[in-house]
Amino acid sequence: MLSSGLGKYLAPTALGAGYAMAKLLALQAVDTELAVVQDFTFQFLAGVLIGFAVRPVARMIYWTPLLAIGVLAWLLLLVGPLGAVLERLMWRLPLDEAYWIRMLPDAAALFGVAVLTPLLIPSDVRQIHFRLLRGRMRYDCDRVGVLKLIGCGLGYPVLFVAIHALITGDGNWTVTLTAGQEFLQHPELETMVALLALRGIVIAVALWPVLSVFLRGSVELTVMLGSLVFVVAEFAPAFANFDQLDPFLLMDQVLEGLLRMFLFTLLVVLCFGRRLETPLQSGVFSR
């Protein structure tokens, strides 16, 4: 078993190897020259980071294997590639052929991680199936749930602007306020806020299935899911391209993403996290 003892370190390492090979094979299929110049070590280490981040979620929720693949693929693809597309649109960067050549292998690698995870990190009990999860989410998807989802979406632009200005200021409150004002005075502010809010909603929707059945305290959920969201959305993509980015710019980007993703995950957990005293096997699952 790769779920205990030394196996708990071997499984994320194996996921890292699977991530790197899937990404390089997909890149080889779309652009041979670009695949040749990729550093396998950085891709492997980025995959290992994702493996360690996804392990607690895969171990502690009692999915059936097929449902685990579906939920993990849903979470990883929404948080990673789709979120990156929305942020790129927000900054008005082109979605040209060169971008898709790099993005599609990333998506294929994350899907490969979702497929391999139930095999390498199986849960001890497999009792949560699709019908049970659908019943739980249908029960939560009421008017209050929709309002919470909209509230999470509106909270993401606030966190984005505040943390971006704080990191840009680097301790100088005058520079921080100036950076915040410059962002708020952007001529396309409404479009940028709408795209940021949409990304917040996408992340909340990605986490919703996990929070529907994950019975843990708010702090544990925030640390566990915040680590996964941060690694998939910010750290792993930056680490995979470490040799191509400016180190100082990379540090600011990673620190900004760390603060934003953990605080936003805390907001989502407070909105959608289930209380510990709520029984997993309740009558709503049979509806």
Largest sheet: none
* Rg, Å, rounded: 19 Å
Task: Please tell me the overall pLDDT.
Answer: 87
Question: What's the structural domain tally?
Answer: 1
Low-pLDDT stretches: 277-287
Strand content: under 5%
The ordered H/E elements are: HHHHHHHHHHH
The number of strands is: 0
The number of helical runs is 11
Shape: globular
The helix content is over 70%
Helix and strand topology:
Blueprint: H1 7-30, H2 32-37, H3 40-60, H4 65-90, H5 97-120, H6 130-140, H7 143-169, H8 173-184, H9 189-213, H10 218-240, H11 247-272
Helix pairs in contact: 1-3, 1-5, 3-10, 4-5, 4-9, 4-10, 6-9, 7-8, 7-9, 7-11, 9-11, 10-11
Written account of the structure:
- The protein has 287 residues and is mainly alpha-helical.
- It has one domain.
- 78% of the residues lie in helices and 0% in strands.
- It contains eleven helices and no strands.
- The longest helix is centred in the middle third of the chain and has 27 residues, at 143-169.
- Mean pLDDT is 87; it is low at 277-287.
